[in-house]
């Protein structure tokens, strides 16, 4: 038994989150090491039974009564309040629904409208130049709609790019390719100092590390729920609007669900109070209630404990890669300092696509990003240190 194998066993033996693994469906016939939770989280064991109840009893038997008696109507805010502690937000500021893309559009246009209440000349949107492509597409559309100029800027260069024309800034908390963690507190403060509004995409940080939305005065934020929150494929996203901005938040997508009197059927739109005004149309109940069941895995878990294990897992993976993988075969793109690292490790590899296909074939599931990046996501609620050592060993054998 190698020293790293022994180390993995010792680390697993003292892992305070190890028991959480039993809350997930993981051990299939191939015994896979699942390191792709940064794309799609594993299935929590509570979800199938809950979905069956929603379909058979709530929909099948109670039918339309479930909107009131089953709590369907209040689910977007109720589940938003369940997510809130995971991103450092007080209750009443998050609404669940729609996709991340739709919520980025709401937040960004809403941010520009907020900025223009005090400065009509604010006609520029800054966007993370390395952002996930869809965020860039949405930012471009929001800019055209609001008459703004879109300016791509690397996150580290945002403070120097801000000015009197800046209305809003859209940034990713964690870079989806490299796993780099950006400085949310400092960048938010810089945006505010320039009189602009900050919109943060939390897709690769929520459920993996502390975010501190309230503590750092973030204006608006969005995120998906199918990665580290394990809500399932296509599960609804969420929108955060800071409490003191909600009365002024002017969504570009007003709908009957966000109306002050949704069943009044009035032709004039009057927004509801609070987080509800972030809603649009009828909630997607099946996937939303599956998400609610999935979030039960967080009972008794702190984000701080998850972050501590995340850093330990990624540290150990990098140690194993350095020991096992032939020198020069991979290059680590993920920052080594803990303060700059999310919960994934990205390795540059010349033949990354074929390598990842072979790894998946032997039960080590990560993913590949064009043109040459191997991504390994570490979800602390169900990934153990023996998994990490096995993955590094398999990678070494494929690159040897």
Give the secondary structure arrangement, pairings included:
Layout (H helix, E strand, L loop, with lengths): L2 H11 L10 E2 L7 E2 L8 E2 L1 H17 L12 H9 L10 E3 L3 H16 L8 E5 L4 H14 L2 E5 L4 H4 L4 E7 L11 H10 L3 E5 L18 E4 L14 E4 L43 H10 L8 H22 L6 E2 L11 E5 L3 H10 L2 E2 L1 E3 L3 E5 L7 H15 L1
Parallel strand pairs: 2-13, 5-6, 5-7, 7-8, 8-9
Antiparallel strand pairs: 1-3, 4-10, 9-10, 11-12, 12-15, 14-15
Helix pairs in contact: 1-11, 2-8, 3-8, 4-5, 9-11
Shape: globular
N-C termini distance: 20 Å
Radius of gyration: 22 Å
* Structure annotation, total helices: 11
- Kindly report the spatial arrangement of strands forming the biggest sheet: 4-10-9-8-7-5-6
Q: How would you sum up the major sheet?
A: 7 strands, mixed
Which bin fits the share of residues in helices? 25-40%
The overall average pLDDT, rounded, is 97
Number of strands: 15
Uncertain segments are none
Strand content: 5-15%
- Please identify the structural class as seen in this structure: alpha/beta
Order of helical and strand elements = HEEEHHEHEHEHEHEEEHHEEHEEEH
What does this protein look like?
This protein has 400 residues and is an alpha/beta fold. It has helices at 3-13, 46-62, 75-83, 100-115, 133-146, 158-161, 184-193, 285-294, 303-324, 352-361, 385-399, and strands at residues 24-25, 33-34, 43-44, 94-96, 124-128, 149-153, 166-172, 197-201, 220-223, 238-241, 331-332, 344-348, 364-365, 367-369, 373-377. It is globular, with a radius of gyration of 22 Å. The mean pLDDT is 97.
């Amino acid at each position: 038994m190698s020293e790293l194998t022994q180390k993995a066993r010792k680390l697993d033996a003292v892992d305070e989150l190890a028991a959480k693994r039993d809350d997930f469906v993981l051990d299939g016939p191939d015994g896979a090491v699942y390191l792709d939770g940064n794309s799609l989280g594993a299935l929590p064991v509570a979800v199938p039974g809950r979905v069956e109840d929603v379909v058979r009893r709530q929909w099948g038997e109670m039918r339309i009564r479930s909107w009131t008696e089953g709590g369907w109507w209040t689910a977007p805010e109720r589940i938003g309040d369940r997510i809130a502690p995971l991103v450092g937000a007080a209750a009443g500021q998050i609404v669940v629904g729609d996709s991340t893309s739709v919520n980025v559009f709401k937040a960004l246009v809403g941010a520009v409208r907020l900025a223009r209440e005090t400065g009509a000349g604010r006609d520029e949107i800054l966007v993370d130049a390395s952002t996930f492509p869809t965020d860039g597409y949405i930012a471009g559309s929001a800019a055209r709609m609001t008459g703004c100029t879109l300016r791509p800027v690397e996150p580290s260069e945002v403070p120097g790019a801000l000015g009197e024309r800046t209305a809003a800034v859209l940034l990713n908390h964690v870079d989806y390719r490299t796993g780099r963690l950006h400085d949310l507190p400092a960048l938010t403060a810089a945006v505010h100092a320039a009189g602009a509004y900050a919109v943060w995409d939390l897709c690769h940080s929520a459920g993996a590390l502390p975010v501190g939305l309230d503590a750092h005065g973030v204006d608006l934020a969005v995120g998906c729920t199918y990665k580290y929150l394990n809500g399932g494929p296509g599960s609804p996203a969420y929108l955060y609007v800071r409490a003191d901005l909600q009365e002024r938040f002017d969504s570009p997508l007003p709908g009957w669900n966000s109306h002050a009197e949704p069943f009044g059927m009035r032709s004039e739109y009057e927004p509801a109070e609070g987080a509800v005004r972030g809603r649009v149309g009828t909630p997607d109940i099946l996937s939303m209630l599956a998400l609610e069941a999935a979030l039960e895995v967080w009972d008794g878990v702190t984000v701080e404990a998850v972050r501590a294990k995340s850093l330990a897992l990624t540290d150990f993976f990098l140690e194993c890669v350095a020991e096992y993988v032939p020198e020069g075969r991979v290059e680590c793109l993920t920052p080594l300092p803990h303060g700059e690292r999310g919960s994934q490790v990205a390795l540059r590899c010349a033949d990354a696509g074929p390598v990842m296909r072979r790894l998946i074939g032997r039960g080590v599931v990560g993913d590949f990003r064009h043109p040459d990046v191997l991504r390994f996501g570490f979800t602390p609620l169900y990934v153990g240190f023996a998994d990490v050592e096995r993955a590094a060993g398999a990678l070494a054998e494929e690159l040897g």
